[in-house]
Amino acid sequence: MLLVQLSDPHIDLDRPGKAAAFARAVAHVNALPTAPDAVLLTGDCTEHGTAEEYEQFTALLRTLTVPAYLVPGNHDDRAELLRRFPPPGPALPGFMQYVVNDHPLRLIGLDTHRPGHGEGELDSVRLNWLDAQLQAAPAQPTLIFMHHPPVMTGLDVMDRIGLQGREALCDLLLTHPQVLRVAAGHLHMALTTRFAHTTVMTCPGTDTTLLPELSRPEQLLVQRQPPLCLIHAWSEATGLNSFTQAIAPTPWHALFDGRRWND
Ligand SMILES: [Fe+2]
């Protein structure tokens, strides 16, 4: 079973580079030698959560030749997402939080969206639902995907928009060792860390990978590197392996065209 994770396209009508990058990411997935079973899209589909941005996002996503499973990020509008992409499996009412039972690796999407806030949250309603889902299939290998990673990065500005409820999620997952991976986004960075009995990985954005300078936690001093996606491959023989893969090389772009700057 093969999954491709893409994250944080941030479609923005004022910054056409975001849509172009997302189109390249979709084309990259469509051109893979082995078609994945699905794409996981871990939030921040749009920059401002407007209907016009979702129109463009949806049009681009329609060109994907495999199913996509989405969860909302802090930049998203939950209602817009729910209207356009109804949960593909048993869901928590009012949230974009659901289980996909169609594959040998069970998938659980968590909704960490907190309207009007950059930080994310998992309150008792969402955590209790997760606990019940995991209790129902304790022997089934499971991947959880969500926007806000349950980690502390050490970067002040990122940790201020981190995940509320992180400790409670850790306690919960300690009782459910079938969770093999927590796949998140939000940071636009490639980060891997231990969490409860599992491993958290973050997928960078579809337009760039940020490499942070960690010695200045009060700043966010970054180097912009080419975008990456994660390939989560599961089989009985190997368990869950996650590969990091560059999204197809980007074309030449006139960041400054002699007259003005272009994002
Ligand atoms: Fe983002």
Structure overview:
The protein has about 260 residues and is of the alpha/beta class. It has a single domain, classed as Metallo-dependent phosphatases (Purple Acid Phosphatase, chain A, domain 2, 4-Layer Sandwich). It is about 20% helix and about 25% strand. The chain has helices spanning about 15-30, 50-60, 80-85, 125-135, 155-160, 165-175; strands at about 1-5, 40, 70, 100, 105-110, 120, 140-145, 165, 180-185, 190-195, 200, 210, 220-225, 230-235, 240-245. The protein has a 6-stranded mixed β-sheet with strand order 4-5-7-9-11-10, with no helix packed on it. The protein has a 5-stranded mixed β-sheet with strand order 3-2-1-14-15, with no helix packed on it. Strands 6-8 form a two-stranded parallel sheet. A hairpin with a 5-residue loop joins strand 4 and strand 5 (about 105-110). Helix 1 packs parallel to helix 2 (about 50-60). It is globular. The mean pLDDT is about 95. Bound molecules: fe (ii) ion (FE2). Fe (ii) ion (FE2) binds near residues 8, 10 and 44.
In short:
Helix content is 22%, strand content 25%. It has helices at 16-30, 51-61, 78-84, 124-136, 156-159, 166-174; strands spanning 2-6, 38-41, 68-70, 98-100, 106-109, 120-121, 142-145, 163-164, 179-184, 192-195, 198-202, 209-212, 222-225, 228-235, 239-246.
Overview features:
263 residues, alpha/beta, Purple Acid Phosphatase, chain A, domain 2, six-stranded mixed β-sheet, 6 helices, globular, binds fe (ii) ion
